Amino acid sequence: MTQIPSLTIRAAEPDDAAALTEMANLPGVRHGTLQLPFGPRARLEQRLAATGDDHLLVGEICDTGATREIVAHGGLLRGKRRRAHVGEILLIVHDDHIGRGHGTAMLRALLDLADEWLGLRRLELEVNTDNLAAIRLYERHGFEIEGTKRGDALRAGELIDCHIMGRLREAPRLAPPFDPL
Questions:
Q1: Torsion from C-alpha of 147, 151, 155, 157, nearest 10 degrees
Q2: Which of 28, 45, 55, 96 could cross-link 76 (Cys pair, CB 3.0–4.6 Å)?
Q3: Residue 26: which of 94, 73, 114 has the closest Cα?
Q4: Do residues 1 and 120 lie in contact, with contact meaning Cβ atoms separated by under 8 Å?
Q5: Which residue has the higher pLDDT, 76 or 64?
């Protein structure tokens, strides 16, 4: 039996741009997202170098030779002003690592960040209607289909539909006063 290396999730860094660009240009990732073919590394370098309210994560595995490989990428994009309680979820998994639990681990990390550290009440995402594995993953974590945008995106010469999914949570609970004694 082959052991699957464990996933380590960390903040994305500008040095990750090359690996993330390569992953975003994979056929399966492009098929399941709005990525265009031949995306430039400079676009990701700028995004990773920018400071702001976005939280970008990578999931990497380490093989027995201590080589690290980025196999998942997730993002939590915070809303502004009257949408400050909202976060948008982004998630991709390397074509060669689908079905190994990496998407689940990344989504759990993003949900923990949103719920336990940022106190976001609403999370939302968009997913192609034919991406059934992703839809099931999101539903298992409390997301519901709120609507469908028909003919939303052009993919390989055909218009495809997209689901809007959302998850609502109660406001964070009030912690008791801290008493160091």
A1: 170
A2: 55
A3: 94
A4: no
A5: 76
Only one residue has tokens 């996933």, namely: 7
If we measure between CA atoms, which residue out of 49, 28, 165 comes closest to residue 99? 28
Q: In angstroms, rounded to a whole number, what is the distance separating the alpha carbons of residues 8 and 109?
A: 11
What are the tens digits of pLDDT across the range 132-177? 999 999 999 999 999 999 999 999 899 999 999 999 998 777 778 8
Mean of all residue pLDDT scores within the chain = 88
* Cα 100–Cα 75–Cα 140 angle in degrees, nearest 5: 50
> Rounded to the nearest 5 degrees, what angle is found at the Cα of 151, between the Cα atoms of 86 and 98?
65
For residues 57 and 73, is the Cβ–Cβ distance under 8 A? yes
DSSP designation for 140: H
Residue 116: burial class (beta carbons within 10 Å; 0-12, 13-18, 19+): exposed
Residues paired with residue 87 on neighbouring β-strands, in sequence order: 78, 123
What is the pTM assigned to this prediction? 0.87
Q: How far apart are CA 143 and CA 48, in angstroms?
A: 27
Give the Å distances, CA to CA, from 32 to 23, 68, 140, 162: 12, 25, 19, 10
At residue 162, φ and ψ (nearest 5 deg) are -140, 135
What are the tokens at 157? 């010469």
Helix (H) / strand (E) element for 21: namely: helix 17-24
